[in-house]
Amino acid sequence: MVKHWLxxxxxxxxxxxxxxxSVLGPGDELIFQIDTSGYFANALRYGAPLLPxxxxxxxxxxxxxxSSFSARLQSADGTVSVSFPALLSFQPxxxxxxxxSGPASTIYGGLSLPAATSSALFRDPxxxxxLQNAGDxxxxxxxxxxxxxxxxxxxxxxxxxxxxxxxxxxxFVSQAPxxxxxxxxxxxxxxxxxxxxxxxxxRRIQMRGAVGRQHTED
Length: 218
Fold this sequence. Notes:
The chain has helices at residues 37-46, 115-121, 147-150, 180-217; strands at residues 5-10, 13-18, 22-24, 29-35, 54-61, 68-75, 81-83, 88-89, 91-96, 101-112, 126-133, 138-140, 151-157, 160-163, 165-173. By secondary structure, it is an alpha+beta fold.
């Protein structure tokens, strides 16, 4: 299987990130784009409440020991953000699927939404789910599945429960400044030093040329 690799930076330095697994340092985040339009279509079809009142989250990974994450939902315009009420800890379990069957670790989370909050959060059918590492550096993911396939988000309203669609690979956000900033500053300083050296050298050549012409004229 072809893997797409990307070099990212976190508090622990440079890590390789791909669509199947990710190493997250403390405070690092994965941001998933969620499409909830399926819930609204089914709510209209079956006469269920148009606004979800509860959200369930499941994320499965290769076996992980003692690791916790915080989770929050954010509206598409960024004006509303709602956090799951507690840290989500990976629990040991077993996964069975077409690409992998064996030991796995899973986090579960539930979030109840008041009507006003649900209305503001789901004003646009697209929203974002943030998963933030609340512990030490850890690798999450269940290859060969992509990270987006590891996540399941269900929306419930009345007697209707519909799975939301995860759109594309998640974005990676590090809480640490990128080392590239220091390299840019170093490169800029070296460039200024080189420019200064060339300018001074050119001035010396000009002065020598002027002195030579003066002796010739005399």
